[in-house]
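Private note to self, pasted from the team thread so I don't lose it. Backbone tokens:
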């Protein structure tokens, strides 16, 4: 999961120029600053980092964790690893923060990891060792921070000169630095969570896919993370899978999350009649647990 967060970095080199070009460049920089990357981005210059698993959870007797990194790109790449603090908004977006919100506790103080940076050639892999520390200072509840894997841009070799030809103009070179964030969660003592699905609605237009809106209502002292499935039940009782959304999270201290996603148009399914059954459950790779269920009656 997701940073999908964490703004990509930018490096800027300047020369002399005209004011009209400056305004254009500033507009591009502003748009770039709004971009948040939480998933791997294909780029031959930085490589492509694959991280498994996508979440680190330390709970119960688990005191250590191995995180596997692999470069599936065609070029070598270096990544700096750090811990950052992120807030989830009610609509599922992410914002970088420095201080916890009320009811939020950070995990970085209780986590030790090595190495702090990795350089991977094509098809090379590396294990990052994570260890839980200061367990005697943990009180009951959940602690969360996010690992940030930031691509380090390649440095121009010594002696290589700038090939810029026009020295009478002003130019700005933007080098996006892509990053991936994944949550690291510590759970201590008694933890619990309860989820309800409310405010289900369907937006149906002829020229677009049906769009389902849901509000997740979370209570308890831990986050919840799971997969969403949507089935259409016809008036005759036929059940057809029309939507899947994997990796949906509601992080503490958020009590609600507003979520929307498109359903699939399936031949023979009439979205103006029947019922939509929505099920939110634990990911398929863990013990199956149904967190919540909701239904929406469809009408013409």
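Design output:
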């Amino acid at each position: 999961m997701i940073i999908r967060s964490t703004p990509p970095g930018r490096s800027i080199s300047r020369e002399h120029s005209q004011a009209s070009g400056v305004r254009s460049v500033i507009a591009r920089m502003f748009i770039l600053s709004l971009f948040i990357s939480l998933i791997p981005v294909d780029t031959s210059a930085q490589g492509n980092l694959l991280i498994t698993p996508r979440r680190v959870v330390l709970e119960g007797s688990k005191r250590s964790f191995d995180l596997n990194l692999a470069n599936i790109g065609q070029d070598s790449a270096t990544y700096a690893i750090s811990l950052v603090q992120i807030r989830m908004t009610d609509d599922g977006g992410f914002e970088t923060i420095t201080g916890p919100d009320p009811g939020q506790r950070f995990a970085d103080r209780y986590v030790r990891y090595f190495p702090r940076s990795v350089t991977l050639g094509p098809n090379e892999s590396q294990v990052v060792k994570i260890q839980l520390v200061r367990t005697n200072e943990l009180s009951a509840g959940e602690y969360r921070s996010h690992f940030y894997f930031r691509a380090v841009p390649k440095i121009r070799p010594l002696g290589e000169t700038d090939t810029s030809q026009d020295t009478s103009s002003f130019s700005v070179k933007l080098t996006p630095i892509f990053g991936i964030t994944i949550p690291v969660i510590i759970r201590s003592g008694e933890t619990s969570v309860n989820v309800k699905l409310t405010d289900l609605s369907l937006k149906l237009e002829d020229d677009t896919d049906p769009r389902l809106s849901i509000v997740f209502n979370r209570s308890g002292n831990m986050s919840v993370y799971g997969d969403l499935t949507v089935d259409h039940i016809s008036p005759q009782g036929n059940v057809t899978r029309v939507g899947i959304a994997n990796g949906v999270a509601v992080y503490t201290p958020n009590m609600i999350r507003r979520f929307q996603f498109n359903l699939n148009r399936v031949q023979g399914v009439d979205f103006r009649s029947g019922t939509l059954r929505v099920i939110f459950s634990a990911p398929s790779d863990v013990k199956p647990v149904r967190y919540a269920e909701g239904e929406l009656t469809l009408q013409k």
